[in-house]
């Protein structure tokens, strides 16, 4: 009898062990499903997401884990806006329907790049912030100190600067990072480990103030005085362009660029261009521009064919560009400015000497019909590491010449000083 009881105990123990193993396996499978990223009509290659639909259907990505106190922020860099730029960045429940843009359905919220609107559980958005384009970084996060209150404060950023915030209820499973797309060619780079500090320290203020100096940034990201190429770099149509907000004038006639990282090819160009210069053309390639190119040392003046001009430039080199204005020169936007005495300029140590005005013998005599029709001629000069390497006479386009920087290969970074002679 005791033997039979022992055998029954062994059998029961065996089945209990098998049942325990089965339950452990089921738990692991549930956890694996729970923390699995979900996406539809998108191609994921590393940290890059590309839209793969037909523009009639939404593509959506949901991250594998929700935001938490230890990981409360993520960012998306727009690599390509595609046909319409209908890219959404936000937070959704774990099992959000992947054929809807984030923010359209209840318990979801998102900032949409194409119209700058906030969608908070509703297909009708509310005006919220600026529109976003190629090269812009859209961030989304939750203030960690609001996690335990049943409601959380969700905030959004553009290029590291907070756009706005809104209070939303906490979903039972948490709020998961999500990206939506809705037109051909859209592509983003996702960073689920991004960090963002809400303290307005000096570095944040520096980024904001310097970004304001640029009127146009295409496939170029500004971070303080640093410009970084963020385009594809696969063809000559992938030029990244940065154009200053203000043209060169007799008060500010020179600027410099230091090559921090030459990237793959050092396709970096420094020069001047008209205000409406094409965004996918290197400065110097098209009408109304002139530029010195680092990769081959050539000067390009309104043409895709360059002339040998100076030495090539590499990492650590400082390229400069300026205008030697005639003494009686007055730009349209300077009509109300007082005359400026060149003797008051004090260039920094080791910088190029001030060449504000042409010497009298360099000025052209007589009237030029073409000059009267298109604009006055000036002498543009270029420098390398503080030494002038050459000059080129050009006609100033209507509205003036704007400092313009072009980049075209992955990894290129430059540090810009738009006012090196100001103090």
TrEMBL record:
InterPro entries: B30.2/SPRY, B30.2/SPRY_sf, ConA-like_dom_sf, SPRY_dom, SPRYD3_SPRY, Ubq-SigPath_Reg. PROSITE patterns: B302_SPRY. Residues 10-197 form the B30.2/SPRY domain. Pfam families: SPRY. This is SPRY domain containing 3. The lineage of its organism: Eukaryota, Metazoa, Chordata, Craniata, Vertebrata.
């Amino acid at each position: 009898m005791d033997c039979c009881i022992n055998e029954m105990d062994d059998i029961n123990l065996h089945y209990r062990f098998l049942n325990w193993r089965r339950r452990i396996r089921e738990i692991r499978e549930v956890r694996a499903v729970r923390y699995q990223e979900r996406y539809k009509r998108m191609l994921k290659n590393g940290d890059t997401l590309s839209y793969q639909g037909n523009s009639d259907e939404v593509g959506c990505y949901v991250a594998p884990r929700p935001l938490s106190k230890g990981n409360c922020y993520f960012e998306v860099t727009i690599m390509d806006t595609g046909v319409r730029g209908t890219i959404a960045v936000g937070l959704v429940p774990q099992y959000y329907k992947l054929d809807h843009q984030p923010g359209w359905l209840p318990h979801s919220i998102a900032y949409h790049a194409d119209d700058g609107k906030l969608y908070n559980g509703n297909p009708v958005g509310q005006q919220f912030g600026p529109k976003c384009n190629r090269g812009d970084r859209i961030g989304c996060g939750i203030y960690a100190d609001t996690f335990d209150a049943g409601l959380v404060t969700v905030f959004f950023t553009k290029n590291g600067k907070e756009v706005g915030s809104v209070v939303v209820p906490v979903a039972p499973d948490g709020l998961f990072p999500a990206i939506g797309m809705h037109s051909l060619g859209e592509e983003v780079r996702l960073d689920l480990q991004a960090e963002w500090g809400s303290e307005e320290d000096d570095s944040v203020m520096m980024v904001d103030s310097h970004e304001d100096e640029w009127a146009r940034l295409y496939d170029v990201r500004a971070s303080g005085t640093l410009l970084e190429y963020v385009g594809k770099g696969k063809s000559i149509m992938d030029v990244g362009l940065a154009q200053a907000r203000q043209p060169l004038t007799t008060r500010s006639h020179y600027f410099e660029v230091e090559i921090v990282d030459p990237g793959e090819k050092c396709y970096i160009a420094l020069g001047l261009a008209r205000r409406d210069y094409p965004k996918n053309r290197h400065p110097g390639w098209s009408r109304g521009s002139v530029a010195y190119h680092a990769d081959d040392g050539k000067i390009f003046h309104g043409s895709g064919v360059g002339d040998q001009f100076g030495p090539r430039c590499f990492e650590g080199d400082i390229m400069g560009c300026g205008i030697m204005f005639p003494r009686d020169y007055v730009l349209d936007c300077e009509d109300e400015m007082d005359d400026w005495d060149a003797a008051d300029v004090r260039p920094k140590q080791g910088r190029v000497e001030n060449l504000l005005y042409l010497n009298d013998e360099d000025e052209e005599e007589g009237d030029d019909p073409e000059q009267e029709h298109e604009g006055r001629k000036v002498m543009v000069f270029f420098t390398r590491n503080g030494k002038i390497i050459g000059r080129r006479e050009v006609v100033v386009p209507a509205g003036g010449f704007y400092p313009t920087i072009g980049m075209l290969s992955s990894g290129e970074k430059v540090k810009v000083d738009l006012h090196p002679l100001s103090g």
